[in-house]
């Protein structure tokens, strides 16, 4: 019996094989969408829980189950972000007391950590969610158009157009970020270069 049939039948050993084969791929995909290792770990756990719950939707015939799992991971990421936004909104409505201040300090620390992400990661956040998901599936996870379309539940043509748009916009945002960084460095360098000259002329 092939892996698809065994997964559909709820074979626990088959799910163990599925996890061993694709957990790393799901983890990498989740990190590319979230930018946070801890969040990616949560997405992996929830993805395989959902895969177990949705096992009867697996076709018995077909190829790799990787696109199916990455599609579930994409949906899990959307749902966890939505839940996080609701949680943040609820916290914002709480009275401002010492506990909330402590939590705000913790959030500020997390934001400081996020500031260390690369220029590319910063540029990625400026893309539409749909474009970012296609980019993650096709470019980083290596899915072809058909597999990405299967993962997202959209036509192949939609994947092609989203990927083309994502690549164009990503290149533009990266260039803008690089230019901004260079300008900042030049301003700092000019300040350091001018200061000794002034001191020498006194």
What does this structure look like?
The protein is mainly α. It contains nine helices and no strands. The protein has helices spanning 3-8, 12-34, 37-53, 66-92, 98-114, 119-124, 129-140, 145-152, 156-201. Helix 2 (12-34) packs antiparallel against helix 3 and helix 3 packs across helix 4. The longest helix has 46 residues, at 156-201. The termini are far apart. The model is unreliable at 94-117 and 193-202 (pLDDT under 50).
Keywords:
202 residues, mainly alpha, 9 helices, 80% helix, 0% strand, globular, disordered C terminus
Helix content: over 70%
- SS class: mainly alpha
Q: How many strands appear in the DSSP assignment?
A: 0
Number of helices: 9
Beta fraction of the residues?
under 5%
Could you report the average pLDDT, rounded to the nearest whole number?
A: 75
> What is the distance, rounded to the nearest whole angstrom, between the alpha carbons of the first and last residues?
87 Å
Q: What's the alpha carbon Rg, rounded to whole Å?
A: 22 Å
Low-confidence stretches: 94-117, 193-202
Largest sheet: none
The geometry reads as globular
This entry's quaternary arrangement is: single chain
- Give the ordered list of helices and strands: HHHHHHHHH
Structure at a glance:
The chain is mostly helical and 202 residues long. It has helices at 3-8, 12-34, 37-53, 66-92, 98-114, 119-124, 129-140, 145-152, 156-201. Helix 2 (12-34) runs antiparallel to helix 3 and helix 4 packs across helix 8 (145-152).
